[in-house]
Design goal:
The chain has nine helices and eleven strands. It has a seven-stranded parallel beta sheet with strand order 1-2-3-4-7-8-9. A two-stranded antiparallel ribbon has the order 5-6. It has a two-stranded antiparallel sheet with strand order 10-11. The chain has a single domain, classed as Metal-dependent hydrolases (TIM Barrel), CATH 3.20.20. The structure holds zinc ion (2 copies). The site of one zinc ion has 5 residues, from loops.
Length: 264
């Protein structure tokens, strides 16, 4: 199994020691992991600036890939917070500045504000919160394309009080998925939805099936763990979701190139 979405204390919202995260993955018998600490340029929340100590981070990645190479394959990743305009310019510089194996492009903000704040949620109905989010996501992946998979596509559902009927947003998702497929990008199954007790998986089965129907075939799986206890969480469930969607492969990355592994 592969856990391709993992945070350590290099992310503003985690205090996990990278070695503890890696040892948890080894202990769980995972074949391969990607460390994907979080950089969200121009994130407007002073409590969580989501800046990244690149010197320390890249040193750590270099150390752990060598140190643990006989026990587990570790890929050098990052989760970039995309926003159209100036933040995406910084994402582009970041993606080019270091030889990452794998880049998750995620959308944590829409209309310039963080999705989990009253600034975003209070003036919007759930319908508007969802449609503004997907409109910005499409704009973000049109404006910046140097990522490998789109992170937690229906992330906005974590914060809205009620999930609107999918007819409200599915046409937007279809445009996003078509764009990703055209660009050769993947999506991820993010199993944190199970830990948050969400009604829907991330992505939902209709979204995963639509990606497959449109010709998509690149899917990574990740726990989005921010602490050692969550490493590898629900990866079996992610495998079941892939099978149910008729996707027979799971993707890993090296030097930004995907390899598709037949599901066991
Ligand atoms: Zn994220
Ligand atoms: Zn994450």
């Amino acid at each position: 199994m592969y856990d391709y979405h993992l945070h350590t204390a290099f992310s503003a919202d985690s205090d996990a020691d990278p070695d503890d995260i890696i040892n948890a993955a080894i202990h769980k018998g995972l074949e391969e992991i990607a460390l994907t600490d979080h950089y969200d340029p121009m994130y407007r929340d002073p409590d969580f600036p989501f800046e990244l100590d690149f010197t320390g981070y890249t040193e750590m990645l270099g150390r752990v890939t060598a140190q643990y190479k006989d026990e587990i394959t570790i890929k050098k990743g990052i989760e970039l917070g995309m926003q159209p305009g100036a933040p995406n310019r910084i994402c582009a510089e970041t993606a080019a500045a270091f030889p990452f194996d794998f880049i998750i492009g995620s959308v944590h903000c829409a209309r310039g504000v963080s999705l989990d704040t009253p600034d975003y949620l209070a003036p919007r109905t759930p319908e508007q919160a969802v449609t503004d989010y997907y409109d910005d996501m499409l704009a973000a992946i049109t404006d910046f394309t140097d990522f490998d998979v789109l992170g937690h596509i229906n992330y906005v559902e974590r914060y809205i009080e009620r999930i609107p009927d999918e007819t409200v947003y599915m046409n937007r998702i279809e445009q996003i998925l078509k764009k990703l497929i055209e660009l050769g990008k993947g999506i991820e199954i993010n199993t944190s939805s199970y830990r948050y007790g969400l009604k829907d998986t991330t992505p939902t089965m209709p979204i995963l099936k639509l990606y497959k129907k449109l010709g998509g075939e690149i899917v990574t799986t990740g726990s989005d763990a921010h602490k050692a206890a969550d490493v590898g969480d629900h990866l079996e469930a992610a495998g079941h979701m892939l099978r149910e969607a008729g996707i027979d492969y799971i993707a890993t990355y090296k030097n930004r190139k995907p390899t598709l592994h037949k599901l066991k």
